[in-house]
Amino acid sequence: MIEIKDVSKDFAGKKRAIDSLNLTIPDGKIVGFLGPNGAGKSTTIKMMTGILPIDDGSITLNGHDIEKQPLQAKKIFGYVPDQPDMFLRLRGIEYLNFIGDIFDIPVDIRKEQIETLTETFNIHDALGDYIQTYSHGMRQKIIVTGVLLHDPDIWILDEPLTGLDPKSAYMLKEMMREHANKGNTVFFSSHGLEVVEQLCDEVAIIHNGKLLFYGTLDEMRKTYQSDQSLEHVFLELTNDE
């Protein structure tokens, strides 16, 4: 479970990025995090993962405060950033072993997981190459593989399907569903409204740093008295006019 309580974030010289955000993401659900560019999605996710400090409020992951108990919190989530351009001077296998070392994954289990996941994402043959030589899609796959390697309870994914080929995107969506069905938490941001509509149990919509809606798609349609698609309701909600 992810609990965001009265969280605010300011950046010098700019309007408030996140304004008193309250959001509880339960176990056993896939929750889509939606909003226009600049709405505060990535800022929220970076505070959830400890990358950015929280100005006001608190965020806990399975009961661990991300600022007061950062090591405990970071052991139980996996994070896929919106830009996978990291550890470019490492070879693919070096990066995955680095992740395995951080999370104390036994060598035999690690080896089996690496083989299974990289075969699934069709990057096994590139593990000996430097990540800087990878395409954007391959970099996304190696980062996703690293996240799945230690099987964290909570998945926090910022645009995880961007750059993935159709087969890999399908496999990742299946993994997300399976992970949630085991009673775990999957929280991901996306601009692909059709994917969110097909995959998510609940959606959270943020705009100008404020939460506009959180609930199921059926609840959204009842709340806004609309039988239209998620795309239609989303555009209506985030229209500034």
From TrEMBL:
It holds the Pfam family ABC_tran. GO terms for molecular function: ATP binding; ATP hydrolysis activity. Signal peptide: none annotated. It comes from the Bacteria. The keyword Cell division does not apply. The keyword Transport applies. InterPro entries: AAA+_ATPase (IPR003593), ABC_transporter-like_ATP-bd (IPR003439), ABC_Transporter_VariousFunc (IPR051782), P-loop_NTPase (IPR027417). Keywords: ATP-binding, Nucleotide-binding, Transport. Residues 2-233 form the ABC transporter domain. SUPFAM superfamilies: P-loop containing nucleoside triphosphate hydrolases. PANTHER family: ABC TRANSPORTER ATP-BINDING PROTEIN ALBC-RELATED. This is ATP-binding cassette domain-containing protein.
